[in-house]
Amino acid sequence: MKTLPLLALSVFLLTSSQVFAAEQAVTLNVANATCELCGPIVKRALSNVSGVLAVDVLEATGAAIAKVRFDDSRTNIAALITATTNAGYPSKVSQ
């Protein structure tokens, strides 16, 4: 019966990363967003990333600001930046 505790420990270790997952928020400065159609494209690109919970895009002159809430166990900031870049709108974390 030594296998039961070992099995229980294995299951715990495999699922423990979800226990420590947290909702995160980041603000991205999005370049090349110069028209009224750019904001919705950026929002859709970010919303399509698995783990994104909410996206709010504010348009500014020549750029946009995207506020993104996401589950850090399912995605990360690099994936968000990749999504906007692949849509034609390179972004970086707002300081």
> Percent helix among the residues?
25-40%
Quickly count the helices.
3
**Lateral arrangement of strands in the main beta sheet:** 2-3-1-4
On the 0-100 scale, what is the average pLDDT?
87
Spans of 5+ residues with little confidence (pLDDT < 50)?
none
Strand content: 25-35%
Q: Helix/strand-derived class?
A: alpha+beta
Computed CA radius of gyration, to the nearest angstrom: 18 Å
* SSE ordering: HEHEEHE
Q: N- to C-terminal separation? A: 55 Å
Describe what you observe in this structure.
The chain is α+β, with helices and mostly antiparallel strands. It has helices spanning 3-19, 38-47, 77-86, and strands spanning 23-31, 52-60, 63-71, 91-93. Strands 2-3-1-4 form a 4-stranded antiparallel beta sheet, covered by helices on one side. The model has no long low-confidence stretch (mean pLDDT 87).
Please give a quick description of this structure.
This protein has 95 residues and is an alpha+beta fold.
Core attributes:
32% strand; 39% helix; 4-stranded antiparallel β-sheet; elongated
List the helices and strands and how they pair.
Layout: H1 3-19, E1 23-31, H2 38-47, E2 52-60, E3 63-71, H3 77-86, E4 91-93
Antiparallel strand pairs: 1-3, 1-4, 2-3
